[in-house]
Design a protein that fits this description.
mainly alpha, two-stranded antiparallel ribbon, 11 helices, 4 strands, about 70% helix, globular
């Protein structure tokens, strides 16, 4: 949704680790209930996302630069605070915290469907994709997202709240980072301070493979979800096929370039049809 709105957020990968660390430190070191720790980490994520959006709109700087700065700041904060609190680069022991069982049931349990068993995170992935798709195609806010990504000047001229829309999009991306981080910390009950680095490139790749343009104004949530599915299947498929995993990054680069070229062709055709 943020890319459709014409912006990037390079801090999303590290955000998954930051929110997980906040949850883990508050629950294990401060003795908070896991649910309260999750709420505090959500507030932290929304504040960072809101700050990113506000700074981009206030300064006019490219979101690439602003969120790169946030990425580096969060990376340093994760390492520094974790060492300060635990004297290591890891926080563990969440399973003994109060509220872990109920929180883990919601975010990190397994679902049995006949003979099949899968992580509940798959249901969260489907839910997030469906909600985002409905917002994009069924609500005025969805129209605003396409407008501010495709023609921001025109959107502002017709009364679209451009600043508010983009700030909310950055906060939505931060919320998604919190969701992934919460699922991870509750599933594994531990988190490394350097976790999540590099995930932001995978997120962008999944969205581009799913049909989102890097220039904004075009794309879909369902397409991005399918792009994530293709990405995940390719990553696991290389392992199961017995290929050398060192070739995965080459495959990822080729897949990204192919997706960009195909998206560009479709964009040009769509523009010709409109004319």
């Amino acid at each position: 949704m943020l890319m459709i709105g014409g912006e990037f957020d390079l801090s999303t990968g590290v955000m998954t680790a930051s929110t997980a660390l906040v949850t883990a430190i508050l629950a294990t070191e401060a003795g908070w209930n896991v649910w309260l720790a999750l709420a505090a980490s959500l507030v932290f994520a929304l504040l960072v996302g809101g700050f990113n959006g506000w700074l981009v709109m206030r300064t006019g700087l490219p979101s690439f630069i602003v969120t790169l700065g946030t990425f580096l700041a969060l990376q340093g904060l994760n390492l520094g605070v974790t060492r300060l609190v635990t004297n290591t680069v890891q926080v563990s022991g969440l399973r003994s915290a109060e509220g872990y069982e109920s929180a883990g049931m919601l975010f990190a349990s397994r679902v049995d469907l006949g003979a099949a068993s899968f992580q509940v995170s798959i249901l969260w992935w489907i839910l997030a994709a469906v909600v985002a798709a409905l917002v994009l195609v069924r609500t005025p806010f969805g129209n605003w997202i396409f407008a501010v990504g495709g023609a921001p000047t025109s959107a502002r001229a017709v009364g679209v709240p451009l600043v508010r829309t983009k700030i909310l999009l950055f906060m939505t991306t931060a919320f998604a980072g919190w969701l992934v981080g919460s699922i991870n910390i509750l599933r594994y009950a531990s988190v490394q301070a350097n976790q999540g680095i590099g995930l932001e490139l995978q997120f962008i790749t999944a969205a581009v493979v799913g049909g989102c343009l890097l220039t904004g104004g075009f794309g879909s949530a369902i397409g991005a979800a399918i792009g994530a599915l293709i990405f995940g299947m390719a990553r696991q498929g290389i392992v199961y096929a017995g290929w050398d995993s060192d070739w995965f990054m080459l495959f990822l680069g080729v897949m990204l370039l192919a997706a960009v070229l195909v998206n560009n062709v479709f964009r040009r055709r769509a523009e010709r049809v409109r004319r």
